[in-house]
Design brief:
Layout: E1 6-15, E2 18-28, E3 33-37, H1 44-52, E4 59-64, E5 67-68, H2 74-80, E6 82-85, H3 97-109, H4 116-119, H5 123-135, H6 151-164, E7 169-173, H7 180-194, E8 200-203, H8 207-213, E9 216-221, E10 224-229, H9 231-235, H10 238-245
Parallel strand pairs: 3-8, 3-9, 6-7, 7-8
Antiparallel strand pairs: 1-2, 1-4, 4-5, 9-10
Helix pairs in contact: 3-5, 3-6, 5-6
Bound molecules: adenosine-5'-triphosphate.
Length: 249
């Protein structure tokens, strides 16, 4: 069995009396899409925040590529290859799509800060940035400001930025939100191909997307994982159907 890329053990986070993360353990293995589902307020985003480093866990461990990253900040985790996207937009709205991706390429290179006008013509940034835009189907819109892109195009741009970081794992928080049926189908196809680039922890309410994509599904309710398994196992679990899928068991 291959080693997990991401290994979460007994993670806990409270907001006053509320246990938002209540002893969560999960593994993300190479090539996998591991979906995290659960009702509103179950603690899915809180969990993603702790893994990404925007929120500090109260206790428990987060190992990424074999290393305990609990003490690292978000930037250090991103530098190691943990790419987070969606829900909170990472785009600089006034900058073109190309410039947004160039900034990500520059950040990945870890180069010391320079004013953008000094690097605007830098081929070592433009070429990889354009390649990312091509991959996500946005090359023709490279020079359009992010603010003028459609919702679906902004999602594509966010993926291009995530790809520019050469991620070793993706954390995606509700990528399908607001996409519409056709957009969701396209994004589902795209994410399906991405699993071979890096495994993905996917928080998603769109069950069609989850059931089409996930190798494993974990169900979170009140901060606890109440079930974990394949799509078929989760779909046929009577407790999950009762607690979350809204069906009579
Ligand atoms: N910073 C905070 N301070 C206090 N309570 C918080 C904070 N962040 C989240 N919570 C609470 O923690 C619980 C889990 O919230 P979280 O946003 O993680 O749920 P979720 O499963 O992502 O929900 P949704 O599906 O609606 O996005 C909720 O009860 C929420 O109100």
């Amino acid at each position: 069995m291959s080693e997990p890329v991401l290994e979460i053990r007994d993670l806990r986070k409270s907001f006053n009396a509320l246990k938002a993360t209540d002893g969560v353990s999960l593994d993300l293995k190479p090539g996998q899409i591991h979906a995290l589902i659960g009702p509103n307020g179950a603690g899915k985003s809180t969990l993603i925040h702790q893994i990404a480093g925007t929120l500090r866990a109260d206790s428990g461990t987060i190992r990424f590529l074999g290393r305990d990253i609990g003490g690292l900040d978000m930037a250090a985790r991103a530098q190691l290859g943990l790419a987070r996207s969606f829900q909170i937009s990472s785009l600089a709205q006034e900058f073109s799509a190309l410039r947004n991706v160039m900034l990500a390429v520059q950040a990945k290179k870890g180069s010391s800060f320079r004013f953008f006008r000094q690097v605007a013509g830098d081929k070592s940034l433009i070429e990889p940035a354009m390649a990312m835009l091509e991959r996500v189907g946005l090359a023709a819109r490279a020079h359009v400001p992010a603010a003028e892109l459609s919702h679906g195009e902004r999602r594509q741009l966010e993926i291009a930025i995530a790809l520019a970081l050469s991620p070793k794992a993706f954390l995606f928080d509700e990528p399908m939100a607001g996409m519409g049926p056709e957009g969701s189908k396209q994004l589902t196809r795209f994410l399906d191909g991405l699993r071979h680039e890096a495994p993905m922890l996917l928080v998603e309410h769109d069950m069609d997307a989850v059931f089409a994509l996930a190798d494993r599904v974990s169900v979170l309710v009140y901060g606890r994982i109440v079930a974990t398994g394949t799509v078929d196992e989760i779909r046929s679990d009577p407790e999950v159907r009762r607690a979350y899928l809204g069906e009579a068991a």
